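Build the 3D complex.
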Amino acid sequence: MNDEQELRNRLRAIEVPASRIEIDGLVRAGRRRAFRRRSVVGAGGVALATALLLTAPSILTTTGARPDAAPAGPAPGATGAPEPAGADRTATAPAAACQPSELPLPAGMKNVTAAGVDPTGRYVVGNDVVGQDFRPVLWTDGKPQALPVPGRSVQVTAVNAAGVAVGLVEDGRQEYVFRYQKGAYTRLRTPPGNWHVYPTPGINAAGDVVINAEPSGNHGGEGSIVLLWRAGSTEAVKLPLPDGANVFDITDDGTVVGAMYRKGVASAAYAWDQQGRGRKLTAPAGQTAAGYAAQGDWATGGLWPSRSAALWDLRTGALTPLTADGPGDAVNAAGWVVAGGLLLRDGAAVELRMPGGQEDLAVAVSDTGLVVGHARPGGDAENAGPRVWRC
Amino acid sequence: MRPDLEREYVEYVTARLPRLHRTAYLLCADAFQADDIVQATLTALYLNWTRAAGADNLDGYVHRILVRRYLDERRRGWSKVLLGDRLPDLPVPAEQGIEERDTLLAALRSLPRGQRAVVVLRYFGDLSVEATAEALGCSAGNVKSQCARGLAALRVALGTGRPVVIAQGERARP
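Done.
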């Protein structure tokens, strides 16, 4: 028997852990999403009339983030500025459709998706995929720039209001966090020893960067620590957090948000200050939680086993459960959440308008109501390119 | 979806689920992630079933979605999962030892991601060179060369039952 046939046989014989997917569950998930899409389309039409009463987000009138000419006059949706702390979020306008525009691509790039946006909406970061490797892109005021590629794969994952971007370089056995600022990459060093950093770095307004690290060769966060690089520094500080703490984001006041993990599984969502004082973020009885992103006074993440998205008030730890399928990936200072490719405002999905039956997938949202993501034509076959929506 | 179409979807998915799950697991070498990739793939298929069911090559279409979802998971940094929250690369407890027992899986894990994806799609998914190239967004020539290199690296595991040594410049992680 030749090697190829032997390989075919052996791949079929590998023992695979049992799948937890059930057909009934798949059909339910499909129905839920199909229903939600129809509901969102309905809400958009109703809300248009209301939207005319609202002022345009400042992003539209000042920074010109939209690459093509923005129509004069009010845009549907948000007031643009973050709501004041303690504002009654139930009193905001109904969800209105958000208008899309394409983000232009650097020459030669084809498979680009957006990864993040800064709180002002001026900077957007994303990545092209070449084979299995990433190529970073930075948009400033809607103008794209292919960033240099100082390694086999360079993935940009976040950017702050000063245009400082962070991400991961992978180059053979090397893997490290970078900061990209004023046209230059800086490698952010880990403590002595070999560390695997994961999942992706977060950055706040000041330029402080956080990520988790586990000793190389460990799995599931065993022996993990949380590293902080203060703005401008390349020397990591190990935050004094409890064993098992992992963080995914850092707010402008230095609060880090994540969860307590045991054997790789999250038990409870937490926010910690940099002295290691923690606040548990509420989960309903019988559910575990993890915080994935934070901005201003808000954090988002997920609840399990319900698989729903969560919104927490960081001042109190109080939870607002959301109906989205899948954890929240991003949140803005007004408490808008991006979860499962949808934008949720006051718990309701907001229509991200797409021409011609394209599917929209939101990834992140700025404090000014600029949503970034990408489109897929007619469902799921291809990436139709990065988009922004003004909401 | 119309009840008759939904029945067709259920029939298709029921027949293909074990194989898709295995493909996803071989691609990402992680049981939780594999479930997420398959769940996302098949939910997308549900939403698009009316059109997809008429595709010339439905299996090829589903594989393309699967590979894209695999890339999406990589973009998410492998840690933010839908079906159950946990950190990447959760090891199987020693007493089960499924993954450690299988030297081929260990060898597969030691391949660079691109090579692993090519090997899995070609030799488990039975995709043609062209279909593999399309699913992974690379050239047919690239698929051929990655296939040859992947096969060479796995030969040790196939022949002797010992895992291949991880070469310089390669990593065990997805």
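Chain B touches chain A through 76 residues (CB under 8 Å).
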